[in-house]
Amino acid sequence: MRRILLGPQRYVQGEGELANIGRYIGGFGSSALLVAAPSGYERVEARLAEAAARSPFRPVLAAFGGEITRAEIDRLSELQRAAQCDVVVGLGGGKALDTAKAVAHRSRRPCITVPTIASTDAPCSSLAVVYTAEGVFESAMLFDRNPDVVLVDTQIIADAPVRFLVSGFGDALATYFEARAASRAFAPNVAGANSTRAAIAITEECYRILLEDSAQAMAAVEAHVVTPALDDIIEAIILLSGIGFESGGLGAAHSIHNGLTALPATHGCMHGEKVAFGVLAQLVLEHAAPSEAERVLAYLRSVGLPATLGQLGVERTPGNVRLVAEAAVRPGETIHHMPFPVTARDVEAAIMVADEMGSH
Ligand SMILES: [Zn+2]
Asked: pTM for the whole thing?
């Protein structure tokens, strides 16, 4: 049986690390295509100038439009074709980084991801999640390599609104439960192989850190300071959850997230917020130990993640629940990696019960 572990070539995390990006760009050449949303770019502009003064490089800004669609990937790939930069650098949240990975893949150039918020586990992975222009989940694009460098400046993350970090908790919370289910089913991970013991151990550590350090990490971000607890939490969200989901395997929680994106009412919610509710529904679906579901529910409440459909902006009507459930069980969805067959009816029931649990 084949086991595969995926990960970035190099992971660097520290306070003020963005000032060293010139050194990493220099490892690949002298010019860098910077894929960033204008608002995200503004947050790091001064630090990039400081970095270029330390180790010179030629930046070419490719303004990201905000949604990762096939058209947006085509447009930015065209910019890269004209600019012929030596490396593609993504700066921002999950969507900007996924777009940068796709552009790097198309142009066969190395990729550096610089997460400026810790809202998802996208920075380390070798895939991009593509949406329609309306924000509905479309598909996942898989690449043959992970980012060459993942550069995390913890001070930049500490300066971002706390809601992003909390959304990152939701994404990272799913990792252990999904990998556990997928490995029980001997279901394939993102590389199409079985998980390693290393990947499963990483997901367990990720969950442990979330339970221990989330409260202190939130306090650090509220105060815009970096503490050891925030360092551990950032590593859990970006590195441990990143390797964990990709090498451990996904399960029901992310499919329920994908199903939720079919409802326009959820488009104001972040990825991790929808995933968090998906975790609770997965625990119901797989009939996890009641104490475990209670612990997760208490955790969601303690950090302010959604535990009900209402908290996601969704009215609990039979029509809405059916729509989400049907989208969640489409062929190819990782919900079919659970160690038992799952139907739309099962998912409907799990969503209703999770919503009930979250409401009381
Ligand atoms: Zn995710």
From this structure: 0.96
Separation in Å, CA 138 to CA 63, 196, 224: 22, 29, 36
134, pLDDT greater than 90: no
pLDDT digits (tens, 9 = 90+) for 194-228: 999 999 999 999 999 999 999 999 999 999 999 99
Q: Which two tokens stand for residue 72?
A: 């947006």
d(CA 175, CA 201): 11
How many Å lie between the centroid of ligand 1 and the Cα of residue 317?
Answer: 26
The CATH superfamily holding the domain 251-360 is: Dehydroquinate synthase-like - alpha domain (1.20.1090.10)
pLDDT tens sequence across 99-120: 999 999 999 999 999 999 999 9
276 CA distance to ligand 1 middle (Å): 10
Measured between alpha carbons, how far is 49 from 210 in angstroms, rounded to an integer? Answer: 34
Instruction: Please give the positions annotated as active site.
Output: 171, 254, 257, 271
* CB-CB contact of 282 with 251 (8 Å): yes
Q: In the CATH hierarchy, which fold is given to the domain comprising 10-158? A: Rossmann fold (3.40.50)
Q: What is the mean pLDDT of the chain?
A: 97
> Where are the chain's structural domains?
10-158, 251-360
Asked whether the domain spanning 251-360 has the same topology as the one spanning 10-158, the reply is no
Spatial distance between the Cα atoms of 334 and 252, rounded to a whole number of angstroms: 6
CA atoms of 23 and 117, how far apart (whole Å):
22
CB-based neighbours (< 5 A) of ligand 1, an ion: 171
